[in-house]
Amino acid sequence: MNKKTLVIGASLKEERYSNRAIKRLVVAKHDTVAFGLRSGEVSGVTIDTDLKAYTDIDTITLYLNPKRQEQYYNYIIGLHPKRVIFNPGTENPEFYELLKENGIDFEIACTLVLLSTNQY
């Protein structure tokens, strides 16, 4: 099943996990959009540097540390995703509570592992 995914904290650097996640999401045939600090393209996915009003987002996968996430709380909640994945290093109990209050599921997991084990 195609789960439209927004990668927040996307990087053009190939060694970054966000970059690897974009590539794996594309291979798995999930519609993928990305937001990062620098514009560019990874596997045909444009990395946007401005916050767009994406529609029909199933999953947001985070690659930002908790302190950097704060400025995006309202944006993420406003997109009404079905779930948010907190990858290793992004765990954020404060944000978990806000997501719960807004009826948004979250997982503390690794997007790459979920994809490789068909649990995405």
3D architecture notes:
It contains five helices and seven strands; from the N terminus they run βαββββααβαβα. It is α/β, with parallel strands linked by helices. The protein has a seven-stranded mixed sheet. The radius of gyration is 13 Å and the shape is globular. It starts with a strand and ends with a helix.
Kindly summarize this structure in a few lines.
The protein is of the alpha/beta class and 120 residues long. The protein has helices at residues 17-27, 66-69, 73-78, 93-101, 111-116; strands at residues 5-8, 32-35, 40-42, 45-48, 59-62, 83-86, 105-108.
Summarize the SSE layout with pairings:
Elements: E1 5-8, H1 17-27, E2 32-35, E3 40-42, E4 45-48, E5 59-62, H2 66-69, H3 73-78, E6 83-86, H4 93-101, E7 105-108, H5 111-116
Quaternary state reads single chain
Portion in beta strands: 15-25%
Structural class given helices, strands, pairing?
alpha/beta
Tell me the span between the first and last alpha carbons.
9 Å
Number of DSSP helices?
A: 5
Outline type: globular
Q: Please state the CA-atom Rg, rounded to the nearest Å.
A: 13 Å
Helical proportion, percent range: 25-40%
Q: Characterize the biggest β-sheet.
A: 7 strands, mixed
What's the count of strands? 7
Mean pLDDT: 97
H/E element string?
EHEEEEHHEHEH
- Spans with pLDDT under 50 lasting ≥5 residues? none
Q: In what order do the strands lie side by side in the largest sheet?
A: 3-4-2-1-5-6-7
